[in-house]
Design a protein that fits this description.
With about 775 residues, the chain is an alpha/beta fold. It contains 31 helices and 33 strands.
Amino acid sequence: MTSDHQSPDSSRVPGLLPEVPRQGGYGPVTDGAWSSSPYRHAAASWGAAKSVGSILFQQRELIRGARSMFVMNHPTGYDCPGCAWPDDKKLTLDFCENGVKHVTWEMTPKRVKREFFAQHTVSELADWTDFELENEGRLTEPMAYDEQSDRYVPISWDDAFTLVGDVLRGLASPNEAAFYTSGRLSNEATFLYQLMAREYGTNNLPDCSNMCHEASGRALKASIGTAKGTCDLDDWEESDALFVMGVNAASNAPRMLTALANATRRGAQVVHINPLVEAGETKTIVPHEIVDMAMMKETSVSDLNMQVRPGGDLALMRGLAKVVLEAAESDPTVLDRAFLEGFTAEFEAYRDLVTATSWDEITAQAGLSEEEIRRAGQIYLDADKTVISWCLGVTQHEHGVDTVREITNLLLLRGNIGRPGAGPSPVRGHSNVQGNRTCGIDHRLPAWADNLDEVCGIVSPRANGFDTVNSIEAMNDGRVKVFVGMGGNFVLAAPDTVYTAAGLRKTELTVQVSTKLNRSHLVHGRRAVILPCLGRTEKDEQASGLQGVTVEDAMSMVHISHGKRRPASTELKSEMAIIAGIAQATLPESRTPWQWYVDNYDRLRDVMAKVLPGFEGFNELIKVPGGFRIPQPARERVFQTPSGRAEFSLAPMPNVIPAEEDVLILGTMRSHDQWNTTIYSANDRYRGIKNLRELIFLNEADMRARGLAEGDFVDITSTSRDGSQRTLRRFRALRYDLPRGAASGYMPEMNALVGIADYSTQSDQPLMKNVAVRISKSA
């Protein structure tokens, strides 16, 4: 797909799909007709079981794939490489449909060998869809791009490391390299990666957090002194009310359905806040509950669904705070006065701000009636203990930081922080994205940098590095000449697809550490190498024997993961070994014992225990079944803010209503049969879609206003903050239950509409859920 970006780089970039998409978009090319019909069934249930069976059959892993269910998320097994939802120690089979898909996709017997690359030029592969690329199977040996033949050709590991090291040493400045990670890297490999980058001399460590939960970290740090949520699974199980905001639980964190079902069974109230009413926000049959499955016994997972206007979450939270403060006028016990006086700052100023905000302003910005907001407010008032959880539907907006701080404001009013069953609980995406940030993947210097320098004998650079958006801009203007990607599919995950691709093509070298072939291998620098790594499910054999690695889930639990399967190829290296190989080739005078760490990961964990707060005794802590929880001062009501108290935010309420009547606010999202940029099929079961990805969901009244009928081809045009325009052509317009003025469509197809200038000034996150678009019928 192309973009109408008004710049010299606006022409078609080799390696991206053509302007008129094939049926299936970035997914598989399909022969069947597309269809759309409402999904009426419970989330998970037999539909999930059928889907699991289908993917096991397609990948020819019926036996070994089924066995994986008994070791995935088990204390003696491996952590699911999918989402970051915490493991439930009370469950024997703690897995979900999408986790099985993810693991089976990794365990496939299919292989991409040197013969495959000899048969296909990069230009030819550029016309394949991403499904077709990944479906070829696992990469088996290092490959280097040969410009003369336009093919990837075999290269030895030593030569690959030498190539990377020579280019990195030849740069004019370490800041001409960017070291990206997608969020799947283990804690150990993360620590080694950031150590390499900082010893090399740069803080250019962009990551996927820059695109998803940066707003959460900045907001929570400002409000309560920690960049993470304070809740664990026990808190979810003790809460009287759960508010779940901007997340499609059935697809993005399916194991959350168990917690939601348990909550409603014990009488807790569950409120979902999302422009779309998703399947996971209504009812479920959890597959591991065998009796319920056999009897088709559905469990409600919602007491109230609120279809908020895109970006209207802050207004809704302020409306709920207004309900609380109004109730406190007649019943002072509604507020936790002791907590407010002893642990918070700026309460009176916040109370005055809420009082001065009119109901008309709140309802207009939230897109909800006063009656709806008061109903949700009463649920909050009736609950002694409340957890508020949120995901990208909250953070990927201009005012994401202010919104998360407003969520915290609401919790503070009733002392719902620092006690069991209550608190903020962001839903993280990739399996170790939170651990990546904890262990040092950050373009800003970590607070523990002095420890790092003292223990490891280096001098970390003090200046901020490039985040994701900065890195894309720097590649385009020549300031970044080397891009190293540890996992992921950067060109499709990032905003402004054409501009991102153009930047990668301007680099001297791109290095992709991957398990499978993807689009980012085809959109490459002048030189390029693909370094294949072990998957999470595979045995990691080093000099001292089998190794385990750790990950941190979304609730700060750290636990060890042991692969169980024979590696897909004898040529694969662990991510630790690959990082060490690059480091040794790049820093020949380094006194860091890179290979010594790789020989036995316990050695690196001993170093991490001296550097990272909360990791003291690391090697002993991970021997405990289920691992350990990183201590959080805010959970104990110790707020490490400048005032030493939890800080109320006094942000003004933004105007999120478009000035022009013909503008809709588009949010990008995943389909159900997809994980990040990996697309398993062109179906989206929970939204009733078959054989179609190039679509846009619209409110029925918005369709009528534009003279559109179901299935009409439309062109979608966005106008960036810098005035440039981007257009996607011939997408199907489909009716969906959305608020008036809202629209939705799939990523990565629609990432092309998000301009590089379209990022939050509060968090620097691309505005993936707040794209202003105009829709017109295709010619």
